Amino acid sequence: MRPWILYGILLASLACQLVGLVMFAKGFFPYKAISTTFASLEDLPLEPSLSVSGEDSTQTTTVKPRFGKVVLMLVDALRSDFLYGNESDFRLMQSLIDDDKAIPFTALASAPTVTLPRLKALTTGTVPGFLDAILNIAESDQSSTLANQDNWIAQLTRSASLRNNAKRAPGQEEKRRIGFFGDDTWIKLFPGLFFRSEGTSSFFAMDTVEVDNNVTRHIKPELEKDDWDGLIFHYLGLDHVGHSGGPKSNLMRPKQAEMDSVAHTIYTTLVRKESSTENQRDELPTLFILCGDHGMNEVGNHGGSSRSEISTSFLFMSPFFEGTKARQQIRSMVDPYRNAVDREDYEYYRSVSQVDLVPTLSLLMGLPIPKNSVGQLIPELFSDLTELERLRAFQINAYQVAGVLRNMWPDFEVESSVLLRDYKDPGVDADSGLDTDETAHQTCMSLKSEKQKLGCWYTLALAEHASFLEMHPSRIAGNIVYKDQQRTQKLQAAEKAYSEFLSDATSMLSTALSKYDMSLLTNGSLFMAFAVAGMIFGALQTRLVDEFKLSCREPRHVESSLSTPSQQPPKKRTSMTTLISAAFSTKITTRAEPWGKKAKRDRNEINWTMARALAAVTLILYLVTLFASSFVEEEHQFWYFFNMTWWAVLGLISARYLPPGASSGQLASFAGAGYCFFQMAILRLLRSWNQTGQKYADQIDLRHYLNSTWFAFSWITFALTIIGLGASVTFVVFSQRQRPAHFGSQALSQHATPAWKSALISVLQSLITVFTALTLLWITVYKMELESVQIGSDMMARVLRVVSTISSVGFSVIPGGGEASGAHEFIYSGYAMARGCYAGMGAIIFLTLVLQQLVALPAQPTSSAESQTPTGQSEESLASMILEDRDRTLFLPWMMLAVVTMLMILLSRRHNAVIYAFFGIQLYAYLSWTSLVRQRPDSNGSQEIKEDAPELDYRVEVTTDNVSEAESTDGRHQPLRRTAQTPRAFRTAPGLGSIHSCSVLLWTLSSFFLLGNSNSIASIDISNAYVGIQSYDIFLTGVLTFVSNWAGPLWWTIAALVLMRWDLEWEFAWAKEDRELTLKEKEERGWKTVQGWRRVERGTLNKRTMRRIWKYKKATGAAANKDGNIGATKEAAGDHQGAADQSEKTQGSLGSEVSDSLRTDEQVQDVMLQQEGEEVEEEEEEEEDGTLIIEGEQSLEGDQEGGASAEPSGREATQGPCILREPVLFKQRLGHTRMVEHLVVTSVFFGMTLYVLSIAAIILRHHLFIWTVFSPKVLYQFAWTVLFQALVQVIVVGGGIWSVIVMSS
User: Fold this and answer.
1) Segment 428-465, tens digit of pLDDT
2) What is the DSSP letter of 79?
3) How far is CA 25 from CA 145, 310, 1045, 1254, 1275, in A?
4) 1099 pLDDT exceeds 50?
5) How many Cβ atoms from other residues are within 10 Å of residue 746's Cβ?
6) Which of 100, 512, 686, 1113 has a CA 20 to 30 Å removed from the CA of 732?
7) Beta partners for 262?
8) Are 363 and 382 in contact (CB under 8 A)?
9) Helix axes 992-1010, 1047-1089, angle to 10 degrees
């Protein structure tokens, strides 16, 4: 199968997979079962009643509002310890807590812990879908608006203002107004709801100053105004500090102090205004809430479900809390948590859910609770209410949550007026009533059905509530008097029942509000299954390289096409017969040995069975781990283990099959094993660089030391990496020189390069070196400016000034390089320098392509060279020359890899830069290992050579039905002698391509985790999303985010091109050598068979010569047939012999005795004279490459049987260019074939992974960790399959970059 056909099959399979992926994603990432209507105060429930007469209560009032205004200060990524911890710099806020003037809570978020879904939870009370994590990155997305979803922002703007200066004309009541300043995500979510607003971009993560200053400047002016009812301030600086340097960054505590100062300013301003103005005193107090949307992990990222990511803060403050009574209540609520011992990590005060803010704030402001809220009110904030008001607040909250349950369960109906079957008259004694309440509670808890349990709790809460109302003095009819103990008992029982119902309902609704489209899930999985089937079919066709090389050369292993008329296996044939069969009856075949026979393996071939078995076991085990949440969270451990195992196996194989003496006197077995074990050592070092996953993410790693204790050493390693990269590029560039058509020491001296071309090459080399130096310098300046605040020593500061000054040299050549003058210093040095880096990399690539084409132009031979044909190199010198010419051979892929390395260093964190140096060392070691495998010597036994033909240094293999031997003779019947076979310089390595693919795949997957990534959304690093761009652009920001997070896999994708180009050189050299030896062997066999003929043109084998040999073959067959017929007639008239002798006689000429050879030779000469008279010379002869096609040639069997069967034409078997006639085209076709094989192997892996993961997601869709573990993994696998494999590897690299490299070779 041609490579382009297989490539087309691969693209079709990927397209089918994409269709299935889209269908699956639409069905898997569910929509929420929400109501699109808005709640109203008119929809409030009636108070519960136990009236026997059936007369229901008519009370539908809401809870009296306690606050008239609200100020919400949201600090992005405000982890709980940032506000409450001992190392926190929120000193002013902590003093308010210590003085009992603020009510603190630990707020728990749910995954995904990114801003957009957290804002939805804080305003609507719902648990957003996981798809919001994707929309959170798309800053221009407008589909996530909450304009049609109930939320407290909309409810606040719909309600009448409670300000004294608000207009209250009949029918024209002034609505409440809300102002917003900060993260522009709010403006997308609530379009048109803010009467004053100013947004800031949330993804320029390197900006930690201006993004907050743009919010702070609005604080005092807005607070001094009296035309607002709500203000929201969203600060992003603390989150950006975490993204850029982590929670232990030197910028973290100053940022905390800054936020503390802002919060204190807001608090003191509110207290001052409400205490100094008479008009303000008459209004309801203002509620000030300081909170966060999520936390952050130890790296500074967020999005996952670890305790550090979900733990944030709620701090409620108000001038109302300044009173003595309020402070006493706060003290009683907070004291139990101040010195708690058994609390969990990041839990400082009582834990509440983020969604609890919605019903709490709605009731405190006198608003209806949004219909879709699943939160429960925070009782501590209602402690000053009366008993009736507090139970009414619980009832309103429970009624709203029951409405959400009714959307899910239409038959979940509970009447407002209820009467428990086991209800006991309120007049019973307290002990009996207590027993009755406990029994009812036990009954509800014993129910197994979630629906029944919730219904029981709700019914019980209403009953207890109604019972309390019957006991309340304001509701008692007649002279019945109840004890306070009885009322307290009923109050506590009602509150407990309400709390149990709200708690269980909230927990259940947080995970049960998802609906899956099973038809889309099933159809999507089927499409992905079809795609995997297509890829597996392509994988079964990946013997393209062997088929391609066989398509234009005679195979060294030939088979006889002779058969007897009786189809019986003959006995041992004569030497004449065997040699004729070997010399002339060969045919091109790619058929494998029959299943019943075992082909004898060449001892020189490496047995990759162990490695292939390990690859299969790894794939199977990995697919199994996709069903386990723990393995998904700790996937990096899986790849680390099997990567180490892979290199251990390759090391054992190298020690077993690489013989000594293959590497210039070295022991190849030791060297090959050493390279593999060296890979293991580097991997062991790198796996300690960045801790990832969930269980051990907080452990100290090398990254921690490089950013703290070893800070100076970290910069030294960064500088050494930059210098090493620049030196490597310079060495590779200046290794380029004019490449003649025949490269060898003699040829180099005979080909002269024109002076203009040499000068132009020197200029290009100098320009590439200059641009490389400038680009690396700009990268260094950008990184140093980025962390300028953390550079504390005077030495580092001086280094920064010097490097910045040097980097300005030549900066004006970059378009737009100086346009930022006069702007902020960081904007100039950061944005402009990064932009200069991009331009420098583009210039390096362009100049590299020009230099490659210029060097590839053929040189003009000198007069002495024109008169001589360059002598062939010996095998050993040719192999050494390939090794010495490595830098020129790999020039283009090396330069591409160097530019990609520059890009990855620019888009990676500073402490990860040196990892790319280790990657380069691993690649170099693997190239050396490949060279050892490719040039191992041929140590096979011996060969048979005639005494008078010392130049015959090859082996003739002949396979008959039951004999496989090498034998030859001539008319004098001289015996053959055995001599050692001349070792080949190059050997093919069957299966080495699959070993390369598996090695690259293991490197690719391991490198993703080595750089600190994981299967958690939290590991997505957006700190480099704006490198070199000033404003949001969905395409550029998306590309930079993907490249920065997949930096390791992308690096190894380009490194694979270097490896494949190097292996292509060895494969081409072997194919060329093997083709030349095969043609020489065929020529020698033919001439040694034709007795009495002389060589007219030694060393050639053209079409005319081959036709003469074929004529001789035909004449020999005719003469043998004639003699055989005579012999058969005589034996038929004589005595009869056994069946074995009869079989030999019927063989005709194939059974002729050697004693008849002289007579047969005379007959052959007669036939040949007759045929030569009729021979018509061919119009033109073929080239020396031996691509000789004899049209109409028939096998000897066909001649015997009257020419009934003809040998297939050689042109029909030819599928590609021949290596000797068209070496360039042959190498290009071979390179494309190798790439297609590699792409098919990797596509099968990613395709099977996606398909099995989709099955796991369907089966585990109701699993506890479906949203925290499996959903992020599904998102990551989508990115792996679509963006990395299909887009980058198959289309960009396989179809684009590799084609350029191959065409330029």
Assistant:
1) 444 444 456 677 777 787 877 788 888 888 888 888 88
2) B
3) 21, 26, 22, 9, 9
4) no
5) 14
6) 686
7) none
8) yes
9) 170
Does the pLDDT value for residue 826 go beyond 70?
Answer: no
- In angstroms, the CA 1051 to CA 1284 distance is 12
| Residue 551 or residue 323, greater confidence | 323
Lowest mean pLDDT among 240-249, 515-524, 1083-1092, 1168-1177: 1168-1177
Using CA atoms, how far residue 9 sits from 455, 523, 1291, in Å, is: 57, 21, 13
**112: preceding bond cis by omega (within 30 degrees):** yes
CA–CA gap between residue 199 and residue 184 (Å, rounded): 4
Q: What angle do CA 253, 254, 260 make, to 5 degrees?
A: 90
Decide: residue 410, CB within 10 A, 0-12 exposed, 13-18 middle, 19+ buried: exposed
Instruction: Determine how many CB atoms are found less than 10 A away from the CB of residue 67.
Output: 19
pTM: 0.76
691 contact partners, CB below 8 Å, separation of at least 6: 697, 698, 699, 700, 701, 703, 1012
Q: Helices (DSSP H) in 59-209: which residue ranges?
A: 80-84, 91-98, 115-124, 132-135, 152-158, 185-189
> What one-character DSSP code corresponds to residue 1269?
I
* Rounded Cα distance, 1249 and 1273, in Å: 11
How far is CA 1273 from each of CA 130, 627, 642, 950, 1242, rounded to the nearest angstrom?
12, 11, 20, 67, 19
- What's the one-letter identity of residue 167? K
For residue 951, what are the CA distances in angstroms to 553, 877, 946, 954, 1073? 22, 20, 9, 9, 17
Residue carrying the six token digits 């809390």: 321
Question: Angle CA(895)–CA(901)–CA(906) in degrees, nearest 5?
Answer: 135
Query: Helix, strand or coil for residue 1225?
Result: helix
Whether 79 and 247 have beta carbons less than 8 Å apart is answered as: yes
Q: Are 161 and 1302 in contact (CB under 8 A)?
A: no
What's the pLDDT tens digit per position in 1101-1143? 556 666 666 666 666 666 556 555 544 444 444 444 443 444 3
Mention every residue, 6+ apart, whose C-beta is less than 8 A from residue 1142.
none
Q: What does the alpha-carbon distance between residue 925 and residue 469 come to, in Å, rounded to a whole number? A: 83
- Higher-confidence position of 880 and 285: 285
Provide the angle, in degrees to the nearest 10, between the axes of the packed helices 1034-1045 and 1047-1089: 70
164 vs 195, 272, 398, CA distance in Å?
19, 18, 33
Integer Cα distance of 999 and 808 in angstroms: 42
Largest distance between two CA atoms of the chain: 147
Q: Write down the number of H helices and E strands in the chain.
A: 49, 19
How far is 39 from 125, CA to CA, in rounded Å?
13
**Tokens 């041609």 sit at which residue?**
2
**Residue 969: helix, strand or coil by DSSP?**
coil
pLDDT digits (tens, 9 = 90+) for 1182-1201: 433 333 333 333 333 333 33
* Amino acid at residue number 1227: K
| CA dist 640 → 518, 1006, 1010 (Å) | 36, 6, 9
CB atoms within 10 A of CB 339: 7
In the chain, the amino acid numbered 970 is D
Contact 159, 176 (CB under 8 A): yes
Euclidean distance between CA atoms 102 and 622, whole angstroms: 51
d(CA 1009, CA 632): 13
Amino acid 627 reads F
Structure tokens at 210: 């201006």
**CA of 137: how far to CAs of 294, 1012, 1017, 1032, in Å?**
16, 20, 11, 11
Which residue do the tokens 């192997």 mark?
1241
72 membership: H or E segment, kind and range: strand 69-75
Contact 252, 238 (CB under 8 A): yes
| Interatomic CA distance for residues 211 and 234, integer angstroms | 10
User: Percent of the chain beyond pLDDT 90?
Assistant: 29
Q: How is residue 1155 annotated by DSSP?
A: G
